[in-house]
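tokens incoming
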């Protein structure tokens, strides 16, 4: 449960071609950061977003309410021992 002075916002972590992760926030265009590891990217994301929100308040601007979005996640599964072949194709369609 969130306390009254905390809010959750969506952050997008995109693997960078140079290594690490680029981070952006759909609710705050232009608010971006980077981390060499996923954990560092998460830390940097929190820091940059807090600073971004503080600056909005300092400038007298309102903070847009959080927009509920779907959550995307990667799920690791075991690969089947044999090819899905034609059977898989029947599900695609």
């Amino acid at each position: 449960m969130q306390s009254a002075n905390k809010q959750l916002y969506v952050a997008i972590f995109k693997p960078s071609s140079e290594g690490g992760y680029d981070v952006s926030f759909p609710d705050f265009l232009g608010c971006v950061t980077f981390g060499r590891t996923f954990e560092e990217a998460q830390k940097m994301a929190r820091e940059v977003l807090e600073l971004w929100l503080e600056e909005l308040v300092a400038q007298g601007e309102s903070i847009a309410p959080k927009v509920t979005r779907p959550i995307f996640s990667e799920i690791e599964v075991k690969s089947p021992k044999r090819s899905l072949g034609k059977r898989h194709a029947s599900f695609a369609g």
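note: The radius of gyration is 19 Å.
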